[in-house]
Amino acid sequence: MVDWFMEQEPIIRIGFLLSMVAIMALWEAFAPRRALTVGKAYRWVNNWGVVVTGTLLTRVIFPAGAVGLAFFVESQGWGLLQVLDMPFWLAVLIAIVVLDFAVWTQHVMFHAIPALWRLHRMHHADLDFDLTTGLRFHPLEILLSFGIKAMVIVAIGAPALAVLFFEIILSSLALFNHSNVRIPTAIDRFLRLFIVTPDFHRVHHSWYPHETNSNFGFNLSLWDRMLGTYHAQPQDGHEGMTIGLNQFRDPSWERLDKMLIQPFIGPADSYPLNRRPETEDESEQVVRKASAGARRAGSK
What we know:
Elements: H1 2-7, H2 9-30, H3 40-61, H4 65-76, H5 80-83, H6 88-112, H7 114-124, H8 139-156, H9 160-177, H10 185-191, H11 198-202, H12 209-212, H13 222-227, H14 256-261, H15 280-299
Helix pairs in contact: 2-9, 3-8, 4-8, 4-9, 6-7, 6-8, 6-9
């Protein structure tokens, strides 16, 4: 059974991805949480363009992918989980949880280090928040993320099946928790005890720095709760909050070519975690100051 999963890995992953895209797209159409500020067709063409660019680049540089690497690691007996005496199902479960924590830690790191924030901020510069935002990452960030994930896979000796499950869970929940869907408050309150919901993660895409630097999780919600980065609701409410960054407010920055050059444009000091304002009032001052600077730069 495991061998069959490994042989069918590309088909399984693509099948789950396309199914989740279809489900969330229909949900967004029939029960949207917010009105979009930029035309969906314009954003989707360019956001999917980023996805295709990043996927092709990763496959060219790392043709085996994460699952292929894990299969090789497993065959060589490398890593901690390969030498510990435990049931296979437990090794799979531990690997999935460790990989999820690694992604959470990486996400914090991309907010804390200005050079990495330059890459990651393209994800945050989306002026709206829907399922395509969950796949919109700069190709260079995708390559760095793969390198970090590869080191974790080798270090813990993650079973190939665990990596396959994790990749499916990560892409599926990224589509879910970035989607523009309405979920009843009581259901959301229950779900977010365990997983990251759209309302949970939308706070992270607020243009206020103190909200941007919170709710880093993609899959499990416990990391933010345990480590003090949980922010329950946006201060302006979900319908009234401003999505995106102060630097890239013009919709022209949603175009594929301009998204790809965003890491090389302007300052990177208004949002990194290590410069986070102490209070919400200071956070608003940062937004106003940076927005004014962006307007002055644009008028020159």
